[in-house]
Amino acid sequence: MSRSDFCEIMRFIRFDKKNQRSQRLQTDKFALISEVWYKFIENSQNCYKPGEHVTINEQLFPTKARCKFTQNMPNKPDKFGIRFWLASDVSTKYVINGFPYLGKEENRRASTHKKHQNL
């Protein structure tokens, strides 16, 4: 595919319904692409049965997009991106499940870690 064809497709492609975007963003930070992402995960699970060894790993997908959940990880080759937690089959590296790290939840209680430090 030529670069100009790719740019033309990217100009018109949309993964969400623009008129519902602001409403969905109030409850889902990943709303712009979540429908496509969760369909991908559903298809991955329907099409593959993992072996007995599965690993969970974090993966930084590099991006220059500006969003609330872009991460800066200076020890990675690509410094900025979206962090995903992925469950993969060890032998084939096939992604079985995954979700993006969307930052700290506002409604989450404060950690009790400080209470346990003094014990």
pLDDT average, as an integer? 78
Low-confidence runs: 111-119
What Rg, in angstroms, do the CA atoms define? 18 Å
Roughly what percent helix?
25-40%
Distance between the termini: 63 Å
Order of helices and strands: HHHEEEEH
Query: What's the total helix number?
Result: 4
For the largest beta-sheet, the strand count, sense and barrel status come to: 4 strands, antiparallel
**Total count of strands:** 4
Description of the molecule:
This protein has helices spanning 3-12, 21-25, 34-47, 113-117; strands spanning 54-62, 71-72, 80-89, 95-100. With 119 residues, the chain is an alpha+beta fold. It has a domain at 16-21 and 28-104. 1% of the residues are buried.
Short précis:
By secondary structure, the protein is α+β, with helices and mostly antiparallel strands.
Keywords:
single chain, 4 helices, 119 residues, four-stranded antiparallel β-sheet, PiggyBac transposable element-derived protein domain-containing protein, globular, 4 strands, PGBD, alpha+beta, disordered C terminus, 29% helix
Element layout with pairings:
Layout: H1 3-12, H2 21-25, H3 34-47, E1 54-62, E2 71-72, E3 80-89, E4 95-100, H4 113-117
Antiparallel strand pairs: 1-3, 2-3, 3-4
